[in-house]
Amino acid sequence: MTSSFIKCTLTSVIFLLAKVDGTFLNKYVSSEINQNVQSSYSSRYDAMTQGIHNNDDIRPLKVGQNDTPSDDETVFFFVMFGIGAGFSMLIFIASCTVVLRFLFSRGRLILTNDTPGSLDDAALDEELDARVLQELSPNDQELYFQSKDFVKLNPPLTCDLTLSQSLTIQEKGVQAWEFKPNVACMEQIKVTNKTEINFMQDQQELSVQTNFPIPSENDVYYFETKLYDYPNNEESCSVSIGISTFPYPYFRLPGRQKWSICYDSTGSRRFCDPCPLSIKNGLVAFPKLQRGDVVGCGIRTHSRTIFWTRNGKRLSETKIGGHIRMPKHFKLYPTIGAIGKCKFQVNIGQMGYVFIEANVKRWGFGPLEGSETPPPMYTKFNKDVLLESSDLDPIDLNLRNGDFPPNFHETIATPAQFTDADLDDEDDITLRTIQEDRLGFFKKRLGKGIISRKTSSVSTSTSDLPPVHPPHYNDVLEQEQNEAVSITNQVVRQEGASVSRSMTEHLDTSENETSNF
């Protein structure tokens, strides 16, 4: 398609040049003929003077007059020819550029819908499955195929953050990020202070991820993980620190499944490969990890390349093929995994990094403080006002009688009365004695109004006893409504009587006036 386009373009350019410059070519041909004719006439004249008459060699030609081109026409011809040649060259260069871009871009065609950039994902998956069946143990094979099913049922997230999540990050800043273990492994993984991770299992692969992905606004983002408590024995504990998509199988270490990369405690860099590694694929590419080491992992958002640091120094990856590039349309999350008991402390920007460049360029996940206002101090009372009374007028307290029990304002002000007998008997009252003597206690109190315990007794009047059926608030409201209705009816009757009295007086006066008339 591109070659035919180039041919058509060149043909049209040549046709235009021939159309424009055809007259000038004819004039140049005529000028050449005129020169030949003049030379033939001169040769004939010389032959006649010498007496040589050879009519076969000398043939006169008819030549038109005024066929020699002028200097202006010659200059114009060369100018047009140069413009046409330059235009043709530009078209040729543009066509070559388009062809080269088309040829080089064909290597990034997506043949399947799984990943960008791979030529045949199905074939690569089949090859990896064959390697797993050949190189891994039955238990590892089962974990691998279980994780594949997990990824199929829970595809990686590609959508942006929701509005509520964005507002949370804006309000809390870097404090919005925290590691949240899966519900199935809450007892095996404990997270304190949002970024302090404690693995408490012995021989099981587990991993934990953050609640929010790595941002993409800045050029670089970076986080560090300190091995706070880690046994140096490789057989008892294994650690993997890296980045993966979300959700990642919680029963697998990062770097073992698709679109995950990690730095193993053995010193290997692992990328989407559960099988044993080779030196070319990252086996022992980095130093081995020990207790107290700080592993840093950074990502460049534009190229999606991953780089590593250890104890504040950048690690080289030239011997194993350079930096790994992650897919651009997936959201990536910090992922920490371990086999065995160990503790980690992750720094995503809430404190200073060991890697100095990250501090200078501010590669943290977010600002230290968000837009959320802190709660007021308990000791600050300069602007507080203590009211001596409520804003409600005491005259209007009758409107709120339904909000309180009957005789509330009278009984609430009654002080408590104690006697020596109460104080002496107070030590003998327990929960068991109350439960055992509850029925008899209330029967005596309600029937006689007297409470006797051992040798001391307290005499109370029946008026102090609580009612058997205390009134309900709704009953009080209904009573008030009935009173209001009765008052309204009484007012209406009084107004009706006054109106009828005035009407009778008016009729009497009118009758007297008519009789007098």
From TrEMBL:
Residues 1-22 form the signal peptide. Residues 493-502 have a biased composition (Polar residues). It comes from the Eukaryota. Residues 156-353 form the B30.2/SPRY domain. The chain crosses the membrane at residues 75-104. Residues 493-517 are annotated as: Disordered. Gene3D superfamilies: 2.60.120.920. Pfam families: SPRY. Keywords: Membrane, Signal, Transmembrane, Transmembrane helix. InterPro entries: B30.2/SPRY, B30.2/SPRY_sf, ConA-like_dom_sf, SPRY_dom, Ubq-SigPath_Reg. SUPFAM superfamilies: Concanavalin A-like lectins/glucanases (SSF49899). This is B30.2/SPRY domain-containing protein. It comes from Dekkera bruxellensis.
